[in-house]
Write a structure and sequence with these properties.
3-stranded antiparallel beta sheet; alpha+beta; Ubiquitin Ligase Nedd4, Chain: W; homodimer; 179 residues; 2 domains; Nucleoside Triphosphate Pyrophosphohydrolase; 11 strands
Chain lengths: 179, 179
């Protein structure tokens, strides 16, 4: 951030009065420009004993497999966002069962909220950001070709949960350590 | 948003190619300024059979009771943010038990993630944004003086959960209807 989005003046990085974190502040109009993590919302779409995965048609992780997910938009609930992203990326029409995973990626300022969802029908149709969609039984999941750690975690916990069959939400995080 | 935070030029509201939502776009440098919901993270701090509530010292809802919570910051996990906010607002040092509530407020572009947390000791100390903190037994909760619907929902579900004793995360939302 270089300029104030309110008045166009150059911003300064400083700790505002009463705060303890450096923010971009406009010395002209006084506006404090807070920057906060974004949410990624998505689903594990389940049909009978299979789940629907999507092969990515965009970077990052082009050609890797993922679950349908994307950034939560303003003016929607997390459930609405997850259902919308699932429709956009996979064409699957789903009903939310429960929140399955909340996963933090503090180094990229993202939080994933991944839902367990039932497909209303077996229909799907790869969207613009997807090369193909296909059903996987749990023993067929291509673990070495999964796009993101949050997706890997969500699928691991899905399988774990099939055995325990409880209704908990799993908390996860990725903290990268630099040497 | 009036000006591009990257180059300082005036922005335009338009639907970018390949998108279906209007965004603030800079016609000079091309940057698309996405705007997304922010997360509010907090805890229900539990000590024995009591919970710790905070009386707000700031607007909105000055003088009303709430649980310690605030905006998730960049570079922290949701759990870290909830523990930090609990310490800042109530002085309580807590251990996260589980995610208790995920609550969407689409009209103000917020998502609350409220954790159930155990206090390590009975110590507390009201922070700058808090007039006072005190323990409440569940039958003492001042329902008509609770600050926010997401907090009201979280406390209701806390009490409901004491009876069922399961480990689920509750999903909630507030959709205001204008007549």
């Amino acid at each position: 951030m270089n300029y104030c989005s309110n008045c166009g003046n150059s911003v300064e990085l400083k700790i505002p009065d009463g705060d303890n974190v450096a923010r971009f502040v406009c010395p002209k109009c006084g506006q404090i420009h807070y920057q906060n993590p974004r949410m990624v919302v998505g689903c594990i779409p389940v049909w009978q004993d299979k789940i629907l995965l999507c092969k990515r048609a965009i970077e990052p992780k082009y050609g890797k497999w993922t679950i349908p997910a994307g950034f939560l938009e303003n003016n929607e609930t997390v459930e609405q966002g997850a259902i919308r992203e699932t429709m956009e990326e996979s064409g699957a029409d789903v009903t939310i069962v429960r929140l399955h995973v909340l996963y933090s990626l503090p180094q990229v300022n993202q939080v994933y909220a991944i839902f367990l969802a039932h497909m209303k029908t077996a229909d799907f149709d790869a969207g613009d950001e997807t090369l193909e969609c296909r059903f996987y039984e749990t023993h067929e999941i291509p673990w070495d070709k999964i796009a993101f750690t949050a997706v890997h975690f969500s699928l691991e916990k899905y399988i774990e949960n099939l055995k325990t069959n409880d209704t908990q939400t799993y908390l996860g995080k990725l903290i990268r350590k630099y040497e």
